[in-house]
Amino acid sequence: MLYSLYEVGHAMMTPLRAAIGFGARVSKSAMNPWAQTLVGRQASAALDVFEATTRRYGKPEWGTMTTKVNGQDVAVRPTPVLERPFGTLLRFERYPEDMAAARGDANWADPRVLIVAPMSGHYATLLRGTVEAMLPEHDVYITDWTDARMVSISDGRFDLNDFIDYLIEFFDEMGPKAHGVAVCQPGPGLLSAIAVMSEDGHHALPSTMTVMGSPIDARCSPTVANQLAMERSTDWFEGNMIYTVPWPYPGVLRRVYPGFVQLYSFMSMNSDRHLNAHYDFFTHLVEGDGDSVQKHRKFYDEYLSVMDITEEFYMQTIIDVFQEFKLAKGLLEHRGRRVDLRAIDNVSLLTVEGENDDISGIGQTQAAHDLCVNIPKDRKFDYVQAGVGHYGVFNGSRWRTEIQPRVRDLIRSNFNMEEERDIRRSADIRRRKDALSLRVAAE
Known about the structure:
Blueprint: H1 2-28, H2 38-54, E1 65-69, E2 72-84, E3 87-94, H3 96-103, E4 112-116, H4 128-134, E5 139-145, H5 160-174, E6 179-183, H6 187-200, E7 208-212, H7 224-231, H8 234-241, E8 243-244, E9 255-257, H9 259-269, H10 271-287, H11 290-303, E10 309-310, H12 311-323, H13 326-329, E11 333-334, E12 337-338, E13 348-354, H14 367-371, E14 380-385, H15 397-413, H16 417-442
Parallel strand pairs: 4-5, 4-6, 6-7, 7-13, 13-14
Antiparallel strand pairs: 1-2, 2-3, 3-5, 8-9, 9-10, 11-12
């Protein structure tokens, strides 16, 4: 019912938003004699703030991207590599011609890195800054998760087991000796996938895994979010957080944790900060401070873009990760088998935490070191970034100047260029054979 009411409310606001939009254009018009007066600027700013806070934000586009390699511009093309109903393996393909010119070597090779984006309400584009910092020296892939309301119920369910399966399939597609970077919520999923791959002797086992700001053991330094999960029953979560997708979405009748509910939860935790940010936005609009206005818009265009999560994934995460701490206790199961983190013995580990993280407290991510007991000590690394909160662990100046260089150094210390070239040649041969088989089958 709540989901339907939300949709009705949005529809009812449409005429008002149209009128407000018209008023905003009139208030800024060069033909308006009041446009450049203080009253005119304040009215225009108020209309802009209203529009920004009531608009529905769709999935942001990655758009045209470039990066710099050895001081030269290199064009980047986001390219789907493997598409599944609930997520796509997306590669940020740097144009080969640009890379050959920048590197002075047509046979250049960089480490393949899979950034595992959180499935916690925001789209993978929230990690735009994470991707941009990695692009100059890495062949970057990301898990581009699909909004559950856009997935037909005929495509089945998606829970934590499926999440782990997707990661294994994505690593398999990328090939052996890639590198995994889990940002926030997917840390338990990445550890579990690598544990399963290690136990199975999987040919595409990654060389390194980096886990940042993640609830590996949510019992450590519990935050407000952790305490809420522990204090509420599963019935409460099912009754207050799970709703049915209404018509006309493709996922009609699918049970989900709606993105707008998650967004309210996010913003209520730091309501004063968001209110102050929008007041500053209003002030900057009045003052004509274009740089500050653009910075605000850029952040909130990503932050206010939210997606739905399937009921089964959300509830399993709440129960297994935040209430029963199954991974930390060695009780988590995947497809009926115990996830044994002791099986990981040939993958380097880096954990990163933010000193002021109010989502994953200090120690929650570090717990991975105590659980992965068979990784040699000289292949385990931990870093706590002073002065940053949750978002600052993977975005912003500290990420670019302090954290990302440590991730890069770990990856480079486990990277062999000649071996990488052999892997790429094998992958190219396999893709050509697959393409030929498809053409033969079509004929």
